[in-house]
């Protein structure tokens, strides 16, 4: 496993697979409320995407710092650029996908929304860090009524700038295709986060695949035995676990 480190201190762990042809790559952004990075959403997820025939990478973006602002998104932009210019393994430069869980979903959606913002990215080649698709797993999206307030406060303690982090308000037709899944009974990050983002995507005619599973707590990851966490009510669920196969098909058809 190779590890790259940005000038800002973000780490990108690479999990390529052998191939004689270019393959899609999935960059994984674990969740953790911008306070930590969940191990259950790291290596197990990378291995699962490898088994589906994709390269994988794990981004250890900045967390647990007051007023993080857009730093996690900048970490992700760096990671996408690294993958697009990777050497040593065969990457399809037009199939670089971001898979974000919970707060990591917010990081992924931010880059999907703001990748071509001249205000946030005033210089450079914007196409270098543009993701080709977003995979959002029970994502934090809004800073409004249904916000996961702890995550938003980690980004800024200034409520005047929270509008920037309410991503459903900033969707445009330039957002890449999106795959979203969420459980309706999630009480930590309400399902309305995904619904609000999906509604905005539909209004802008962005290609979308949305799966809402009727039951399940927050943070199920792969929803397999491997990532069970009984102390938090996280058990394997064969119905929810199909999200990965559905997502892999979606990637192949993007």
From TrEMBL:
Coiled coil: none
Key words of the record: Hydrolase
InterPro entries cross-referenced by the UniProt entry: AB_hydrolase_fold, BD-FAE-like_dom, GDXG_lipolytic_enzyme
Domain (BD-FAE-like): residue spans on this chain: 16-117
Protein name, UniProt field: Acetylesterase
Organism of this sequence: Lacrimispora amygdalina
The organism's taxonomic lineage, starting at the top: Bacteria, Bacillati, Bacillota, Clostridia, Lachnospirales
């Amino acid at each position: 496993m190779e590890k790259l480190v940005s000038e800002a201190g973000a780490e990108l762990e690479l999990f390529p697979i052998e191939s004689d042809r270019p393959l899609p790559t999935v960059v994984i952004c674990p969740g953790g409320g911008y306070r930590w990075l969940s191990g259950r959403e790291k290596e197990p997820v990378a291995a699962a995407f490898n088994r589906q025939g994709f390269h994988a990478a794990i981004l250890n973006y900045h967390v647990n710092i007051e007023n993080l602002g857009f730093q996690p998104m900048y970490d992700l932009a760096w990671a996408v650029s690294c993958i697009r210019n990777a050497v040593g393994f065969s990457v399809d430069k037009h199939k670089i996908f971001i898979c974000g869980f919970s707060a990591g979903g917010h990081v992924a959606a931010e880059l999907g929304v703001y990748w071509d913002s001249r205000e946030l990215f005033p210089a450079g080649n914007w196409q270098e860090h543009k993701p080709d698709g977003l995979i959002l797993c029970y994502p934090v999206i809004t800073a409004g009524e249904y916000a996961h307030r702890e995550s938003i406060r980690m980004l800024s303690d200034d409520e005047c700038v929270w509008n920037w982090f309410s991503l459903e308000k900033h969707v445009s037709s330039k957002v890449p295709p999106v795959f979203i899944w969420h459980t309706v009974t999630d009480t930590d990050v309400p399902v309305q986060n995904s619904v609000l983002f999906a509604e905005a995507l539909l209004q802008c005619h962005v290609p979308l695949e949305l799966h809402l599973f009727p039951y399940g707590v927050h943070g199920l990851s792969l929803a397999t035995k491997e990532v069970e966490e009984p102390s938090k009510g996280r058990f394997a669920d064969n119905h929810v676990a199909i999200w990965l196969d559905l997502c892999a098909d979606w990637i192949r058809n993007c």
